[in-house]
Write a structure and sequence with these properties.
Blueprint: H1 4-11, E1 15-16, E2 21-22, E3 29-35, E4 38-44, H2 50-65, E5 72-78, H3 86-89, E6 113-120, H4 128-139, E7 145-149, H5 157-160, E8 168-170, E9 173-175, E10 177-179, E11 182-186, H6 201-213, E12 220-226, H7 233-241, E13 246-251, H8 255-270, E14 275-281, E15 285-286, E16 293-294, H9 301-309, E17 313-317, H10 321-329, H11 333-336, H12 341-363
Parallel strand pairs: 4-5, 6-12, 6-13, 7-11, 7-12, 13-14, 14-17
Antiparallel strand pairs: 1-2, 3-4, 8-9, 10-11, 15-16
The structure holds adenosine-5'-triphosphate (ATP) and magnesium ion.
Adenosine-5'-triphosphate is lined by residues 121, 124-130, 151, 154, 156, 229, 281-282, 317, 319-320, 323-324, 327.
């Protein structure tokens, strides 16, 4: 059985003659797939000369074909983004001196990620993590999706995705865990579950930076960030480290939750992060026995908030026991009961988020590769 790690290990034997670093460290390997004994990948060349490209291509193909268990190797040549500061983009400790990436330049940390979507709220416990995982699962219908649990204080995503795996390491880069068809990273995967962590601002900043530049996310259409509650360091760091495509604000219909979410929206606006819209969670409860609908946390709060800021109300998600259970048991409702009304609402949310991203993308170019 050929592993991704074995292939990458072999490819480390190929150096870029111009940059004197191996092609894995330079981040030139893209779309690596292993189907039984057949290995396919793309060499995402940037500014290499045609002669260097040809040499690297044949070396790469030869080294991988020599691996035990490999019967066929297909090496494609891709354009890749022009990244003159490629070594710095991969967070190498000995990056050559040169222009340091400023706040807006760091899209090059994750050049193959098309859209970055944060899920935030003002208040804790309103359902950010539940919305993040189900939104991420629903977005898989449209392309590859990753999820980063940026809630350093209460990393819930591994539990909600039923993942016990540990991320792999390769050459100082982290291979994200695969969970429910998503690529996932969480501080919860790196530390002991019961270990209390005391986070200071700079640590959060470097954690978020590490999640972006040291993790091999590969090509993703969407990268979803589950945020901690509030308007603290994580929100600030994230908006500084990458240009976020947008943020989804989660609230309950209650006035107290709305007050807090206003503060959070204000903060994202000051940071120039587009507000994709509002998700009203725990909007209503439909009694399973009578079918009667109850507005447990009040009514209309999400819509009022959306109108106030001129953004869409993206979804109204019912309070529902199966949604809670599904999260606790590690299989999101969108996977556990894909035909349920709750799952349908999350799929509609994904469509609405896509629509907003397209709409905003027309106004503001997103960091995509050519
Ligand atoms: N629509 C819903 N129906 C039923 N239970 C829900 C719903 N949304 C969230 N919950 C439950 O409420 C609790 C809090 O939700 P969740 O962890 O998603 O919120 P959060 O905003 O991420 O919280 P925190 O601020 O602590 O990170 C969880 O037990 C979750 O299962
Ligand atoms: Mg959470």
């Amino acid at each position: 059985m050929v592993t991704e790690q074995a292939v990458l290990e072999a490819l480390r034997g190929v150096s870029d003659p111009d940059q004197h670093r191996d092609i894995v460290a330079l981040g030139l390997i893209r779309d690596l797939t292993i189907a039984e004994s057949e290995v396919t990948f793309t060499l995402a060349f940037t500014t290499q000369s045609p002669a260097s490209k040809a040499t690297m291509h044949s070396m790469a193909s030869r080294l991988v074909s020599r691996l035990p268990g490999v019967s066929k190797v297909q090496v494609k040549m891709g354009g890749g983004p022009a990244r003159p500061s490629a070594p710095a983009a991969h967070g190498h400790a000995h990056a050559p001196p040169g222009p340091q990436p400023g706040p807006q330049k760091s899209a090059e940390f994750i050049p193959e990620v098309k859209h970055t979507v944060a899920v935030s709220s003002g208040k804790g416990g309103v359902g950010k993590s539940t919305v993040s995982v189900n939104l991420a699962v629903a977005l898989r219908d449209f392309g590859p999706v990753g999820i980063i649990d940026s809630d350093v204080y209460g990393p819930d995503i591994p539990l909600m995705l039923g993942s016990r795996g540990r991320p792999g390491m390769f050459e100082n880069r982290i291979i994200p865990v695969e969970a429910q068809g998503l690529k996932m990273m969480s501080i919860g995967l790196l530390v002991n579950e019961r270990e209390p962590l005391v986070w200071r601002g700079p640590m959060i900043h470097s954690f978020i930076q590490q999640m972006l530049k040291d993790v091999m996310w590969g090509a993703l259409d969407y990268l979803v960030f589950d945020m901690p509650p509030g308007t603290g360091d994580a929100q600030l760091s994230l908006s500084q480290v990458i240009p976020l495509s947008g943020v989804v604000m989660v609230t309950t219909p209650q006035e107290v939750a709305l007050l807090d979410v206003r503060k959070a929206i204000g903060m994202f606006q000051r940071l120039n992060v587009p507000i994709l819209g509002v998700v009203e969670n725990m909007s209503y409860f439909v009694a399973p026995d009578t079918g009667h609908r109850y507005a447990i946390f009040g009514e209309g709060g999400g819509q009022r908030l959306a109108d106030e800021y001129g953004v869409p109300l993206l979804a109204k998600i019912p309070l529902d026991q199966d949604t809670r259970l599904a999260g606790d048991e590690g299989t999101p409702i969108t996977i556990r009961r894909p035909d349920s009304p709750q799952a349908r609402i999350f799929r509609e949310l994904a469509v609405a988020v896509r629509g907003r991203l397209d709409e905003l993308g027309a106004l503001r170019p997103l960091p995509t590769i050519g």
